[in-house]
Amino acid sequence: MLQRILAAGVVLSAFGSVYADDAGTAAGAAGIPYGPVTVYPSIGLSAAHDDNIYLNNAARQSANYEIVSPGVKLLAQNRDDVYSLDYQANLGRYNSSGTSNNNYNDQSLVGKASIVASTRAVFKLQPEFVIGHDPIGTTYGGIQFTPVPNKWRNTGISGVFGYGSEGAKGRVELAAGYLATKYLNNRDLTFAYDKNATDLGGTFFYRVMPKTSLLFQASNTRYAYDNGGSLVPNNTVRNYMVGAKWEATAKTTGDFRIGQVQQRYDYGTLPNFTGTGWNGTIRWTPREYSRVKLDLTKQPEQTTLTGSNSYIVTSSSVDWAYEWSSRFTSHVNLARVTENFGGLGLSTGNNSYGVSADYQFRRWLKANLGWTTWAKTATPINIPGIGYAPTFFDYNRNVVMLTLTGTL
Description:
Blueprint: H1 2-8, E1 32-34, E2 37-50, E3 63-68, E4 71-78, E5 81-94, E6 104-116, E7 121-134, E8 150-163, E9 170-183, H2 187-190, E10 195-209, E11 212-225, E12 235-249, E13 252-265, E14 273-287, E15 290-300, E16 310-323, E17 328-342, E18 346-362, E19 365-378, E20 382-383, E21 387-388, E22 395-407
Antiparallel strand pairs: 1-2, 2-3, 2-4, 2-22, 3-5, 4-5, 5-6, 6-7, 7-8, 8-9, 9-10, 10-11, 11-12, 12-13, 13-14, 14-15, 15-16, 16-17, 17-18, 18-19, 19-22, 20-21
């Protein structure tokens, strides 16, 4: 396997995003000017070994696979206004015995526009069209394996209007979005997952220090399912959050909010949910060559497990990046994700650990070699219509991946 990975390493890989920010500036990318537009092409390949591709210890299957990832970004700027269009493909091919049914062709087309109407008003718009997949074993619905990955299509648009000049005491952001999810295969199971999500929300920022603001946020997300046989009725999720956004020093920045989360179903067949939710990111840079990032989230999601009336996901992760030189950077990542399925008495815990290293061969070429391990355990559960499954959700998994990322 090591020989396969090293041989594949001579080909460019696009493992993760090539681009660093909304303005389209790629790390090490020069771009190709074409009139008022700058073009950033990329091409890549990832080579990996996964020792449990179905996330099931009872049906354990290992596999080698490669991911070819061509992409291109178009960027244009008119004074303070910035426009971009990103196309990215991820073409996965499994080559171990009997695993070719896991092959996939994911593609995304995402546009972004940031329009500065005045010193006080900024409008951001993001349309998107994404074709993706759920790997076999990752969808809970029906507690069954599909013969091939569940393929889906997302079509949506979102926008944010911000009002308030830089340095003003108060600033407000109004957000709206729409996302339609349609599954494209395995319809005997996935017909229940087709849905539309409509988002509305607003955040008020009140500056209490030069680089610190308190924030107050309210949001409303409406989930409407296309088919009457869905696992849960149509429902609405509301968030009422308070928090802060700060840059206490050049070494520490953060954005954290916490508050009440409500999930209300249209029909009385399922109990409503009210609880505490949060989300935030904290960055700490004790040295210019050492960076620590902490992410925390607790939110309700749409359940895909028969018999559950709520699905609460809590996650926390920390990543430490250390630059040993201008070319070599190491990463250590720790994460934990817990799931609680209301109505079933089921809870799961998934711990992951990972180490990786980046090496910048050239301005336009970077390599990454990483290893990640997962260990998931769950409480025993009596699944309606299926029976007692004490270890169905339990698994452990290891993935080794080598990638090269290149962009002009």
